[in-house]
Amino acid sequence: MLIARVTGTLVASRKEPTLDGLKLLVVRGCDVHGEPTGAPLVAADAVGAGVGEVVLVAAGSSARQTEATKDRPVDAVIMAIVDALDVGEHTTFKK
Predict the structure, then answer these.
(1) Domains annotated on the chain, with CATH
(2) Which pTM does this prediction carry?
């Protein structure tokens, strides 16, 4: 799993029919403070995330394990919206 921040949306009017109905968002991996560290990638949204939110992303075959993505050709899925992140005794991120 990867901590990431949603940076944008992706709209594709023509796509594989099994992707119909999925919201696609652009995310970038981030550190425990919510600051971007990784390259952008596209993830299917299974939880109603929005631009600017810090999320938890599953990639690879695990991305096809949510109800929204089961048996669909996705390689990354947003499966949680992060409310707070604690490292040790310190809260490093809070929504």
Answers:
(1) 2-94 (2.40.50.220)
(2) 0.91
